[in-house]
Amino acid sequence: MTTITQAASPLADAIKAATQFKLLLDVQPAGALFNPCGSGDARESVCYALASLSLAQATLAEKASSGALTHGHDQVDLLMEVAFGPDRIREKRSTAYMEGARSYLELCVTGAEMPCKYGTGTAEFDAYFAGLDEGREIWRSQMRKEPA
After folding, report:
1. pTM score > 0.90 for this model?
2. How far apart are the C-alpha atoms of 62 and 60, rounded to whole Å?
3. Domain boundaries in the chain?
4. What is the pLDDT of residues 32-46, one digit of tens each?
5. Can you spell out the DSSP letters for 26-37?
């Protein structure tokens, strides 16, 4: 016998359904999905990228409102997933760049400082500080979304 359980909230239900639907799309062969936003595979469309971003943001909001973000690192991980996850259509970033973004977010969320481990004058040093700038923008964007 199948048991039907009620989810914690309508938002949780929507997130679960969207996640399951997205997983169905993701396993289809490349080029097999009609793209209502233009030509090519639907997973390469702006619509798909925006839907993926909205899903990640809704997941973050649901976890934050339910108290599921029990540790500051959880929030940082979710913010990094929203910004750099595989569902985002954007250029890949270097490890140093992503470490810089994570460093800024860790400082804002947990107060932990992560000093730059790269030597001055190196490409990694420059990438780390460019990542810090993006981390600052990610944090500002998050603060604009949260109620006062």
Report:
1. no
2. 6
3. 8-68, 71-148
4. 665 556 666 555 556
5. HTSPTT-S--TT
